[in-house]
Amino acid sequence: MSASNYNLPYKLALSEAHHAQLREHLFPGDGLEAAAIILCAQSATHRYVVNRILPVDHASCRVRSPDHISWPGTAIEAAIDLAEANNLSIVLIHSHPGGMLGFSAIDDDSDHEVMPALFEASELPSILHGSAIMTPNGAICARLYDRQLASTSFSAVHCAGDELLTWEASGQGGVMQRPMAFSAQMASDLKHLTACVVGVSGTGSIVVEQLARLGIGRLILIDFDEIEFKNLNRIVNATLEDARNGTAKVARFASAVRLYRDDIEVLPLKASIASREAIELAGLADVLFCCVDSYEGRQLCDRIAAAFLQPLFDVAVTIPTRQTNDGVAIGDVCGRVDYVKPGGSTLADRGVYTPETLRREYLRQAAPDEVTEQVAEGYIEGIADEAPSVISLNMRAASDCVMEFIARAYPFRQEPNQRRARTVFSLAAGEEELISETDFNRVPNPHLARGLIEPLLGMPRFSPSKVKA
């Protein structure tokens, strides 16, 4: 299954930081149009991610008026040079201080003057370039041109910050209003989104079930595993027949969802997320749900979300135990939901995985004899029950995970979403802890907005030559 086989509408994604940078530069307060140049990578053939912003100096524009701006050749040439190194697309964006979210006849004429120069400098026929508009309220509309200067509008522009902002042109020079949470209109709005769920097992199966019934338009399901008898007590929709036949988890859910949704597209992939095919397929998504139980899986989802500018929702459960005079007893019953916005603190920044946990996990897979010795020495916790009765806990955590998504996409909380970068609940203590984005130490992320630039995710192991080998 190749991600390039899907003919989907064009979408543009940018980080909260890039959006703020654009808004500050394009509206200097003088009521005149201003300009910037956006360099875009791609997470899929149809999905563009803003890699870099190049502000155009106001004084270098020969014409700046309330309804017209000229593009300085030096700025265009500098952008071409920077884009050429990684085959990036160039999008010319300018402001409409009057508030019209759409392209004027003057904009059309300007594009037809500038676009040919961009294409002449690009050797790859697959590279497209475009233009965009920003209005004072921060809304963006954009379009792409091919080499014949035929244009295609981006169906949506996504900006994932503390809230998930989406701008879809209404066709009347404005933006479609965001529906109210939990309404029928919300379900209709969700049909325009593609969600990727990595790990379709305990929590993942429940996340998939909720997303499908809420109205998501396209679901990408990635999991390498098959249904076994030990899974039947915690994977919804799994049957005895599935266990007998070793049905792939993604296949089971693709079939189950279609029994109650005839207006959804499900793209199942039976593969590990640690594969080029899976990473590229995940690049089609607007939002990413990480429901895996491995450190490597979380590391890869972390990098995918950063590289492809996808909001990431990571869910986990745990049941710590303690020793008593009578033996082992429950110490706590916990769940965790992390929301990671592109450009914010990552799962790595938050200590969800570390080089040491990744190393120990690798040893457990590659050198089980060595791991056995380490378990005896107390370095790695023992293997948990293979068939734990945890569906109730999984339901609670998976519900919190999807509710976090709803609260970001269709805000309804009385307090700012920024306070909930992480939510941890303890059922034993009856407590819930909220951790803010500002509580984490964020370090520069070299993978941010790199899209499909090689090596994929900055990891040589996923280079095309090594995958083929």
From TrEMBL:
UniProt GO molecular function: metal ion binding; metallopeptidase activity; nucleotidyltransferase activity; tRNA threonylcarbamoyladenosine dehydratase; ubiquitin-like modifier activating enzyme activity
Segments crossing the lipid bilayer: none
Boundaries of every JAB domain copy: 16-120
Source organism, top-level taxon: Bacteria
Alphabetical UniProt keywords: Hydrolase, Metal-binding, Metalloprotease, Nucleotidyltransferase, Protease, Transferase, Zinc
Entry-linked Gene3D superfamilies: NAD(P)-binding Rossmann-like Domain (3.40.50.720)
GO biological process: cyclic threonylcarbamoyladenosine biosynthetic process; proteolysis
THIF-type NAD/FAD binding fold domain residues: 182-318
UniProt name for this protein: ThiF family adenylyltransferase
